[in-house]
DNA sequence: CATGAATGAGTTTTCATTCAT
DNA sequence: TATGAATGAAAACTCATTCAT
């Protein structure tokens, strides 16, 4: 029998549980997300689950926190890969939207759960992390670019909401629009304000 | 004891149940939405409830169907009140967005439940009716106006999604932006495409 | 199939549950007193139990309330059977103690549970009903008789406690003392104060 | 690292555990008395606890045995301090009751748990040690004094029970009677028998 | 010996649904 | 048809106890 350091053992167990939670969430949906089912899926006893998470919602929160961290990482990675963001360039919005799409496309299953099944009230923080990420990114561009509006913060808010929600819906609803066409429209939408 | 025609009695009962369901949904949230509670609220026995609805989710579906019909009606009513929609007028988007806001503002409580608490999977049809309504309206404008795009249907889809989601989030999140400013931004967003 | 009026049906069920609770309490003790076990014993589903009692402790409370009412009734009945209580008569204490013994002897099983197993904190009211009963009865005698003390209320309290506890311990511990001898001692104890 | 003889280490561990058990019992009550909590409080692993105690109830028993030994010691100490017990002196009962009060007052917290929360069945021996102690003491006095009764052992039993229970209730219920008044009544009660 | 992670049967309670009346 | 008492499977969570290290 292999020697496994304690630390490693518990880490492995936590990982197994979180992984199982994610699986159950995506496979069965939030209404069927039971602590017992997660324990089953993780091949772990219900008691063990409660040694690492104070209650069911802590489990969900953890899954969501990880998911939002992943999104952030992926957005950052995509942007880095695209090269430096020139804040004056109207292509910026496109790059950001592109990065965002890349990030959320990678786990559409969980995206659907987060967006459509989780009771928002209970998980607002993690749920809005996407928003925050997009807001941060666009804020830089918007303030730097020549875009003007009577109420700049209103404009920023509207653009963030629009880009975020349209991107999510495109991934979830598969409306038969090409990725390129979508990006075209999104940058037109944000950039077009210039003419207003 | 007055004789009440069966048909009428049943109709009244169904109405009472649906009304109670809506009340419970808005007052207590979806997590506390139990068939027993609805029966209580309707002053009806649980057994009766099951005489008209095969299961709990049918009840929710019915509430949502009615709600989306109301939204449609209100949008139509608002537009009618504003006067005829001139399809060439860039003010059209503003009018539509205005009508949409008016419609959803009138029952923000239920809007929140529908948007943030209901498991979307089970009620996709009703939930998407808003989109369909807006899509129909904008489709007319977009096709008639000079707005051109490489992919007109993509453009329409994006605008619909953007307007709808931004409007809903504005109502639910109360982001401290005036109604007028919001409408300004929304029409700029849609209209701005012209320059693209 | 016999027609049973609703009212009668639920009454019967409540009775079955309370009876089962009492049985389980006496047979298995408080630590094994489970809602599921009570439901089993009553041949009723756990759900039914909760239709009549808000929680486990309400069940216990009900059993205890009934038990203390029974005790009261039996004490009253015994005293009535003995004939009128002459408040000046030193035999009064004996009569009261006798009545008390008769009352608690009739359900020594439950007496043991109440006295030795129930967490006092949670059921103080019902648990002290014996005390109250004894206090009331003796209060009349003590105030009317020539018994004097520097602090009459202290004397009353001491006698009540002594009679009550000694009687209970005699029933529960079966110390090999005859009923008559016990009554002799108790009245000597209370009456003897006269000489102090 | 200092070498600690095994024996000594185990003794220290046992002590720590028992001490922790007592603390938890008094601080949190019997319903919250869990082996894990005791282990925590003792800064010891649950596994270690089970190396010295076969199960939870053995732990409780040990705490109670120690407690009753302490009571005995304190009673003895109080009596010793008061001076020699003159077996003919009617003040003897007073001295004994006084000693008893002193003993149980010193740890009213644990007294309450023992008297009101612990399932008596499981710990009868320890719980009755108080009685035994008092019985022994009073037995000497009663047999030596001129007190006569038809059944002397019955009389002894009654007095022991009365003194013990009244003393305990006085400590736990705080009935607003002075210590002196209580002692007066107790000795009157026991001594008054003389007149019977 | 000591550890403490892991266990899993068991606890209280809920609620969608049924069915005899 | 309407009732509502009854159901019972299942949920979240606990805790005395074990055993590999």
Automatic annotation (TrEMBL), chains A, B, C, D:
Which UniProt keywords are present, listed alphabetically? DNA-binding, Transcription, Transcription regulation
Using the record's annotation, list all stretches that form the HTH tetR-type domain.
11-71
Q: Which InterPro entries match?
A: DNA-bd_HTH_TetR-type_CS, Homeodomain-like_sf, HTH-type_TetR-like_transc_reg, HTH_TetR, TetR_C_15
Pfam families according to UniProt: TetR_C_15, TetR_N
Asked if Lipid biosynthesis is a keyword of the record, the answer is no
User: Matching Gene3D superfamilies, A to Z?
Assistant: Tetracycline Repressor, domain 2 (1.10.357.10)
* Protein name listed in UniProt: TetR/AcrR family transcriptional regulator
Specify the species.
Answer: Dietzia aerolata
């Amino acid at each position: 029998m292999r020697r496994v350091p304690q630390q490693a053992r518990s880490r492995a167990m936590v990982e197994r549980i979180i992984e199982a939670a994610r699986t159950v969430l995506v496979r069965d949906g939030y209404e069927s997300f039971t602590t017992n089912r997660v324990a089953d899926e993780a091949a772990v006893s219900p008691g063990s689950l409660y040694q690492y998470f104070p209650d069911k919602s802590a489990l969900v929160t953890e899954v969501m926190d990880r998911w939002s961290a992943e999104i952030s990482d992926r957005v950052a990675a995509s942007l880095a890969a695209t090269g430096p963001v020139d804040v004056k360039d109207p292509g910026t919005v496109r790059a950001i939207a592109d990065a965002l799409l890349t990030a959320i496309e990678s786990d559409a299953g969980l995206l659907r759960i987060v967006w459509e099944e989780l009771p928002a009230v209970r998980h607002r923080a993690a749920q809005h992390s996407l928003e925050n990420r997009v807001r941060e990114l666009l804020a830089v561009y918007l303030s730097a670019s020549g875009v003007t509006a009577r109420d700049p913060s209103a404009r920023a808010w509207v653009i963030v909401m629009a880009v975020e929600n349209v991107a999510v819906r495109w991934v979830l609803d598969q409306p038969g629009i090409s990725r390129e066409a979508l990006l075209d429209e999104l940058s037109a939408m944000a950039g077009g304000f210039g003419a207003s």
